Each structure stands twice: as structure tokens, then as C-alpha cells.
Amino acid sequence: MKQEFKTHTVTVFRKPKGFKLVGNDIYEYEIIFKVEKSINLVFPQYDYYTEKVCVPYKYLNKKTTNKSLDFLAFNRKVKQLTGIILNDKVENINVEMFRRDGGLLPFVESVIVPPDQTEQYIQYKELRDRIEKINKLKNNIK
């Protein structure tokens, strides 16, 4: 969906899944992590995993409601949660916009996991899935 303004046109997406305010200028929502399944330079194939990540924001201007992503803090949060070290380059992060409270709010739609860290991320996912299954079994026994 596109919104046209007097000076420019912006593509506006729907609000991300699970979007909620956690703290002061920190929002939590689901982000898609793309893991490259096969190394094909023309048509790469990906496996998709979703993670709930707390994403910090900062105000562009105190007079307006427009905010921007704090990429350094976002990279720290992803490293803390999954152990993946993202580059300082924004090319692996897909950022989109949606309208909230009269202003445009950017959100991270997807992150491409670097090829040298895919195995580490898959091991993290498998371990976390096992822990969730064990916790469900423990809750069912009680």
C-alpha cells in the first residue's frame, strides 16, 4: 500500500506481528530471520524463522512523533538473544515503515543471518526448541 505526500511517496506496511510497547521507546515484535539454505548466487533459497526481539528506537526530532531505529542497540539485542553478530552495515536488515500515532515508524521486517554464522543460529534454535518442549512437559506433569 502506498501513501502519497506532497513531496514524496512512501510504501506503508501493516503493523508487525506481536507489536507492543515494552519500555520507554522500546518495542517488541516478531522479526523474520532468513537462513540461507543453498548457496546459489542467482536465486538463493532461505529457511525462515521468527524471533521476538525488543527493538530500541530514538526520536528524530522532539517536536514530531517520527522515530528511527537505533541500529547499534538493535545489533546488541540480536547478539544477546541469538548470539549472531550482525555487521554494522544495514544491507542484511530489511526495514519497512508503518503509520502509528500520526507518524511513520520504521520496523525491522527481516534479518539475513550471515553465512558464516548459520550453523550457530541453527544450533541455538534447536536448543531453544528442546527447552520449550521440556518446559511444556514439566507443566503438564504438575
Describe the structure.
It is a single chain. The protein is 25% helix and 42% strand. The protein is α+β, with helices and mostly antiparallel strands and 142 residues long. It has one domain. Strands 3, 4, 5, 6, 7 and 8 form a six-stranded mixed beta sheet that branches. A two-stranded antiparallel ribbon has the order 1-2. The longest helix is centred in the C-terminal third of the chain and has 24 residues. The model has no long low-confidence stretch (mean pLDDT 81).
Salient structural properties:
142 residues, alpha+beta, 6-stranded mixed β-sheet, two-stranded antiparallel sheet, 2 helices, 25% helix, 42% strand, globular
Element-level helix/strand string: EEEEEEHEEH
Low-confidence stretches: none
Strand content: 35-45%
**Distance linking N and C termini:** 49 Å
- The radius of gyration is 18 Å
Largest β sheet strand count, sense and barrel closure: 6 strands, mixed
What gross morphology would you assign? globular
**How many β strands by DSSP?**
8
Summarize the topology.
Blueprint: E1 2-4, E2 9-11, E3 20-23, E4 26-38, E5 45-59, E6 67-69, H1 71-82, E7 93-100, E8 103-112, H2 118-141
Parallel strand pairs: 4-8
Antiparallel strand pairs: 1-2, 3-4, 4-5, 5-6, 7-8
Brief digest:
The chain is about 25% helix and about 40% strand. The chain has helices at about 70-80, 120-140, and strands spanning about 1-5, 10, 20-25, 25-40, 45-60, 65-70, 95-100, 105-110. It is globular, with a radius of gyration of 18 Å.
